[in-house]
Design a protein that fits this description.
By secondary structure, the protein is α/β, with parallel strands linked by helices. Helices cover 47% and strands 17% of the residues. The chain binds cytidine-5'-monophosphate.
């Protein structure tokens, strides 16, 4: 069973993919964390993210490991725990040119396919249904309006939860900055030459702007009797 979930930044893919994997006993594969790990390792080693050759070398040599514990999933790059370091604004800037690098994509796609060889995976990213697993059993393209996505990220960063209504405080300046970054990354991801972000022809499109987290999860689980 392979479930592919693609979509733009902040569409809720990560939490939805993680929950679908948890409920169905499948392995969760966060491919964005892989590109982020390459970007972080470049910055950490003084490699310019725009230096295509040097970045490709980092990607060919990198060892990425995922570990799941009660606190969620931890990511290690070359033995170093980078779980929080791959979420910084510096990495967010560097990850665009890194993920647009065809040599990096070639290495990451091969690693992702290897992770999916044994099946039973929920993989989320930008090119899962189009490139990594074109024969996936279930393909979802999850989107939401830029404003809804920025609002979710802003609430999340402030430690709140929109699903439960807990601690929902909105910092408008932060939300504006997040919106600008989302729009910039969407534009970069959708217009790059190597595997641009686009829905697979056979993907089920879900717009989560006005849906709750639970409704999105339920919609995906209903797509296949094997997930129900
Ligand atoms: O999903 P996340 O925001 O963590 O992804 C970080 C970046 O990695 C994206 O902005 C995109 O440029 C890149 N990415 C990609 N292909 C994937 C997953 C992520 O190009 N399959």
């Amino acid at each position: 069973m392979i479930v592919a979930i693609d979509g733009p930044s902040g569409s809720g893919k990560s939490s939805v993919a993680r929950e679908v994997a948890r409920r169905c006993g499948l392995t969760y594969l966060d491919t964005g964390a892989m590109y982020r790990s390459v970007a972080f390792t470049c910055l950490d080693g003084g490699v310019d993210p725009e230096d295509a050759e040097a970045v490709a070398r980092v990607a060919r040599e990198i060892d990425i490991e995922f570990q799941t514990d009660e606190g969620g999933q931890r990511v290690r790059a070359n033995g170093k725990d980078v779980t929080s370091q791959i979420r910084t604004p510096e990495v967010e800037l560097a990850v665009s040119p890194v993920s647009a690098n065809p040599a990096v994509r070639e290495v990451m796609v091969a690693l992702q396919r290897r992770a999916g060889e044994r099946g039973d995976v929920v993989a989320e990213g930008r090119d899962i249904g189009t490139v990594v697993f074109p024969a996936a059993d279930v393909k979802v393209f999850l989107s939401a309006s830029p404003e809804a996505r920025a609002r979710r990220r802003a609430v999340q960063r402030g430690g709140g939860n929109l699903a439960t209504g807990e601690n929902v405080v909105v910092d408008e300046a932060a939300e504006k900055a997040i919106l600008a970054d989302l729009v910039r990354r969407d534009e970069y991801d959708s217009t790059r030459e190597a595997s641009p972000l686009r829905p697979a022809e056979d993907a089920v499109r879900i717009d989560s702007s006005d849906l709750s987290f639970e409704q999105v999860v339920a919609t995906i689980l209903a797509l296949s009797p094997e997930l129900a």
